[in-house]
Amino acid sequence: MALGPHLRRSTLLAAALALAATAAASPAHADRCEDIAKELKNQIDGLKISVNTGNMIYLTHPAAKELSLGCRGRNYSNELYAKTDRKPKPQFFELIASAGAIIFTIPKPDVATGSSRCIKRMGIFRGDRVSMRFRRLNMECTRTKTEASIVVTRGKDE
Description:
Keywords: Signal. The chain is an alpha+beta fold. It has helices at 5-25, 28-43, 90-104, 108-121; strands at 48-53, 56-61, 64-71, 76-85, 129-134, 137-143, 147-155.
């Protein structure tokens, strides 16, 4: 017994809707985050991907003590976190500039300028925690007696 044209159309429509719902439920941002991490690994010498835990991908590089890429937080679309010695070396600023340019798709000199300003502003007058905004990037720098760190994010609405 053959199905009528009306019944076939509704069956195809139901199958298409089920397929669309399945595709929409899958987390697409995790794939994008992994793609960014692979691009970082391919374009920055010495960078290695160590651990992938959901929305956070931990990376390693000789210029940084800690390095991670965060994807899709509550208030940000991407996040770059890096920690180094209290007095950062030029290789650290180069790493932040290269990674930030790839992650946030802005010119490398802009990320280099913003990150160096943020870290260099910490001191007696401004304290050990500095928050600033530079070229649509939010930067927060902190330091302790032995380490300095920077978090670079971009808001979801930008």
